[in-house]
């Protein structure tokens, strides 16, 4: 089954090619250059989605670090940012928690358009309006190096279990 | 004529004091309202005044706005354009602390009593593995006093409301090293009105048109809001509150 998000462009830098399959059964080719982008100091990276995970709002910091143009993001599934190193269980936990009306926190490795990546500490809250959840807001902050390293080890283990 | 009450959150630079009086005088004249200006000296006093009731208009900081909107029957109607609430973490220029990473557990942080500045500062320090319990807190009467503490070496770092930090004299600023300044952009003070405030429309017309003439521009300049106010929808306010919820822990 084809994905509504087009395959990523092959970067000029050496990169691993990976076919990612998302929770909705669609798949897409992405590239991982292994290059990390620095989190912008002092800023929050903010996005909002509808109930189906479709992006409805991104702030300037989000656009800048992702490498995409804003028009390539709005209306697209939020999993456009999913990095192949992220275990499926982490996203499942995020969506299950948010769908239950709870706040979710976690460390996330996001994929940029050019195959580089950046780490964030993300908090997702449901947008509750007159008692009804109408969407989700995700706000990312800069994580510490020690927390990134701990998350890397944990996610690598989780990925191994996924494959095993 | 009925007299309404307007309250201004106390976390502004002292030099803005006259601006709030100019603002109130102009709004009264233009909206033909009697408006009593309440400027509490502290956050505790602000809460007391609001809880006593009869405050129709509040210029609230974003974290208080969340409670006032969701629990106390206020709604956000306007915010200053291009004036987000930011904070600065600084160390003494002569100290050995030159980067955020140099702040170690056990360090003393001087700051005036402002929970929002503290909260945002703590969020920024997460990036260097420093949490609230790792620090000693020296709460000063004013931000100027916090600056003196860190310059003298009585504290290793100080937290400031960015606007107040930038209003310090050049001499003070040369004795401080900025370790980080927040750039949250989406969070600002907001103008709230109590549900049922009968003069909303005329009040809003006066607020949103302040930047259109010289007298209004002068008051706005005194307030450090040269671009004036913009209207806010209910959803704008809800979005900001959602965003702030993510910063609480």
UniProtKB/TrEMBL annotation, chain A:
InterPro entries: PAS (IPR000014), PAS-like_dom_sf (IPR035965), PAS_fold_3 (IPR013655)
Species this chain originates from: Psychrobacter namhaensis
Pfam families with a match to the protein in the record: PAS_3 (PF08447)
Taxon lineage: Bacteria, Pseudomonadati, Pseudomonadota, Gammaproteobacteria, Moraxellales
Location of the PAS domain: 50-85
UniProt protein name: PAS domain-containing protein
Automatic annotation (TrEMBL), chain B:
Pfam families in the record: Phosphonate-bd
Domain of life: Bacteria
Record protein name field: PhnD/SsuA/transferrin family substrate-binding protein
């Amino acid at each position: 089954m084809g994905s509504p998000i087009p395959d990523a462009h092959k970067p000029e830098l050496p990169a691993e090619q990976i076919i990612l399959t998302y929770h909705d059964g669609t798949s897409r080719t992405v590239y991982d250059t292994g290059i990390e982008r620095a989190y912008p100091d002092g800023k929050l990276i903010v996005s909002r989605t509808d109930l189906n995970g479709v992006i409805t709002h991104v702030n300037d910091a989000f656009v800048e670090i992702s490498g995409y143009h804003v028009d390539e993001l709005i209306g697209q599934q939020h999993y456009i940012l999913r990095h192949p190193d992220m275990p499926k269980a982490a996203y499942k936990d995020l969506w299950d928690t948010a769908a239950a009306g709870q706040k979710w926190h976690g460390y996330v490795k996001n994929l940029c358009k050019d195959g580089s990546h950046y780490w964030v500490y993300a908090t997702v809250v449901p947008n509750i309006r007159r008692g009804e959840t109408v969407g989700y807001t995700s706000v990312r902050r800069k994580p510490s190096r020690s927390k990134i390293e701990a998350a890397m080890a944990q996610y690598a283990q989780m990925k191994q279990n996924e494959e095993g | 004529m009925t007299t309404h009450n307007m309250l201004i959150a106390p976390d502004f630079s002292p030099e803005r004091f006259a601006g709030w009086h100019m603002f109130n005088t102009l709004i009264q004249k233009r909206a033909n309202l009697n408006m009593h200006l309440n400027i509490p000296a502290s956050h505790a006093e602000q809460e007391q005044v609001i809880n006593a009731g009869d405050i129709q208009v509040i210029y609230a900081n974003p974290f208080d706005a969340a409670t006032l909107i969701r629990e106390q029957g206020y709604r956000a109607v306007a915010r200053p354009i291009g004036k987000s609430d930011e904070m600065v973490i600084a160390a003494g220029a002569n100290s050995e602390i030159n980067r955020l990473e140099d702040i170690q557990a056990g360090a003393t942080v001087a700051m005036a009593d402002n929970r929002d500045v503290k909260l945002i500062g703590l969020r920024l320090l997460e990036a260097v593995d420093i949490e609230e319990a790792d620090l000693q807190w020296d709460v000063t009467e004013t931000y100027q006093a916090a600056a003196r503490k860190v310059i003298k070496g009585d504290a290793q770092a100080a937290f400031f409301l960015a606007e107040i930090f930038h209003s310090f004299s050049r001499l003070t600023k040369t004795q401080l090293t900025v370790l980080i300044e927040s750039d949250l952009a989406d969070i600002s003070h907001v103008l709230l009105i109590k549900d049922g405030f009968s003069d909303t429309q005329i009040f809003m017309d006066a607020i949103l048109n302040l930047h259109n003439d010289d007298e209004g521009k002068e008051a706005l300049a005194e307030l450090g809001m040269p671009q004036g106010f913009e209207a806010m929808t209910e959803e704008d306010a809800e979005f900001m509150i959602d965003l702030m919820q993510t910063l609480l822990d």
